[in-house]
Amino acid sequence: MLRLRIFLSLLAALGLACGAWAQEEGEGSEPAAPGRAIRERAAADARLLLPQLGLGGSEKVPLNPELGEVRQVKAAFEGEGADKLKAWAALPPNADKSRKHALVFAFVGAGDEDTKEAVKQVAAINQSRDPVVVCSLEYRFTRPVDERTAVIEFCAPAEVRQAACLKLLQTMLKDYNVDPQRVFLVSDWAGSEALAWSRQLWETDADAFPFRAIIINGTVTAQAEELPPVPYVFGIEEEVLKRFKGEQADLNPKNLTNALMARGSPCQFHAYKSAVIGVTPRWQMIVRDAVNRLGGPGAVVYPEQLTGANVVTEADAVPFGESKDPHVSKVVELARAERWSEAWKYMKDTLADKNLKPKDKKPLQDFQKEWDKYLTGELDRLNKSIEASIKANMWSHNLHRARLTAMVEAFKDEKWCKGKPYAANIEKLKTYPPAEREKARREKLTQAIDLEIAGERDKAKALYAEVAKGLNEDGGHSESAKAAKYRLDWWTDVR
Prior knowledge:
alpha/beta
């Protein structure tokens, strides 16, 4: 009863911050189902998370973290051992006070200073396009047993820890510039604990459930029917996944992911290669993309996800050499990463910076001549490639299409880009015959996802298989066919 009273009182306060999500009941109407608004949002979010084209993130693109300040949060925790609990928050360096930011509540770290460092690793998902606030409760500590052995213990009982987590969440919603519709629960080491807390929150007051999605890395033991019906993203290292055979098969997170999909929760599943040392950037990208997709600007498109021809020649290389000048070097780095808008903005901002001396701008001014010559020639080359694909009704070269699209977006307001056919040809790629065939495959794929989430797994599986046959069409460049095959790759039977 004590635990229930603690949660009811804190959830009442949290509900004020999160807003009234429950549907209003008219006179004589049936009472709204608990958490109905949360379920409806989850159903809509299926369109943002799915279809999953494959393993998220990239081995070819750096994470490019934008780390901010990590500080201790003052919050009044109560109960046995509460005086030993610590709360941490990482604030983005690029926070825009005119808008609210997503919040990630993270179960990370092994206590002591390790938790603070782990918060930094989660905060590495932050980017200026979607600044994120991260918070975490430190409630474990390492106790030495002897010179070689140490054990990790909890600072407080479970009910005190969960109440403290909720108090921290309430504090973040009240005192920080957080969007209550974009709050995420992320766990890197205590998935079962994170899910237990989420289950308690849902059972106590489903209408005030705070999390848009739950993102879990590693193994968990839980029953799908006991978990909140929200979106989930699961990740696990490939080497760990291989161990779940025989008697350990029940620990395979694929099983929980499939069971959650069968009961209506949209899910992503990612099995990635582990890093040699430290946190895997691939997983950080996956977390970042999920947050970006749900109410944010959308996920970054990585080279591995692009469709179309994949033959890259020397002519496709960005030709700029290395430079000792830091400003030129930065522009070249962004260009090689196909981040043309950022490169152009950095160049213009640097040249306009009144705090820089003319001699410090000179190398970049000289480089701009080479830059301008390359751009005009490259845009024409890329455009010819796209026009050839349109004329032949063939799938366009993925790099050429992606680079032309990015360059047009970056330079559309420049005089030398206006009036050119670049943008018009990009638009034609959306409706020419290969695109129409892909549209038909996409409609079937969407139908399969809807069937699966509705519990019609046999029908869904058959439709996934039909769409996956598209890998033999249009040169095997269909996004929908790849997504259907990937879904079947981690399909398991649900008991």
